[in-house]
Amino acid sequence: MNPVLLRSSLRHAICLSSPPLRGIVDTPLVSPPLASCWRSHRDGWNAGPELRWGTTSTSSLKGLRKFKVFCSSVDSRPVGEQRDEAPVSSSQSGKEEQIEGEGYGFLGLGIMGVAMAKNLLKLGVPLTVWNRSSDKCAPLVELGATAAKTPAEVVSKSKITFAMLADPAVALTVAVGPGGVVDAITPGKSYVDMSTVDAETSVTISKAITSKGGRFLEGPVSGSKKPAEDGQLVILAAGDESLYHDVAAPFDVMGKKAFYLGEIGNGAKMKLVVNMVMGSMMTAFSEGLSLAEKAGLKQTDVLDVLELGAIANPMFKLKGPSVIKGSFPPAFPLKHQQKDMRLALALGDEVAQPMPVAAAANEVFKKARNLGLGDNDFSAVYKAIAESS
After folding, report:
1. Nearest-CA neighbor of 67 among 121, 13, 127?
2. Residues carrying an active site annotation
3. What is the pLDDT of residues 276-309, one digit of tens each?
4. Could you report the per-residue pLDDT of 135-150, keeping only the tens digit for each?
5. Which has the least CB within 10 A, 261, 265, 293, 356?
């Protein structure tokens, strides 16, 4: 068995084992903290401070599942370490019977959310999902997830609930509106909002969750459709540090690297900075391609020259060919990029930071939206530039 696969499985299960696994914990396949966990607790099963799984009896199947789900944080491998292969999915091993209040939940199954939720299923933990358009739950249900009718129902069935929602307004409604997350939050439950929102929205949601005794972590991501599908997102987390450690395994299957950035709002701010830079770069890239064409140069030659120079980067390499073809399938919708530019500019106003380049880029994205390109990929901003008189 692939050592990475074995370690991923042991991450959830080693502490459940009986004496036959004594030898395994002394091999390189098991990280030192996980091995220590096994050795420390195999005789008495009295959980030490490094485990955050609550009181339970491992003598019953329910207790075993509890321990399996919430023992993941003891692995010492960095959250962002790349994996050679993903863990076996629950669809391969059969759907587990869900215990009320256990497992994971996921809210929002758009382009990003559906890919992230599919990766969560690879942990073999019960997953409950919800989306405003319920038909989007079907692909996850086919893979072993359970669909819920409201966000509150998801939270009631889950220990930790993740969300990937369109914008601050939706994130607030799902969190604190009727039938929302807060309606079902109780002590012991946690909420991880991975949506891109402003810091103020994140703080508001955090206060609502913690006022009910829950834990909150913001975790916006850098990356679009393909990285989400491949589990290669960059996660920008802030908030409850104990929760950050408890979601190490989910973050590991959804991302290639996770950062803990401190207090609530820092994750949101970092994401806005990153997306502001990305939007400004895409606008300049589009201007360059359009200028080259009108000056009689081959746009493909521009891509080749850029790839060999100091500003070579994955975005130009990935988006360039499709821009030249005039094909803009949405990996990251343009309307969301413009929303992030707007939020970044608002952050600049808040801290009195001049942002003339980002402001100009935002105007071009707004023009693209007015041209009806909002649901296209954000690289469709090229059309707003190329078609300018």
Report:
1. 13
2. 271
3. 999 999 999 999 999 999 999 999 999 999 999 9
4. 999 999 999 999 999 9
5. 356
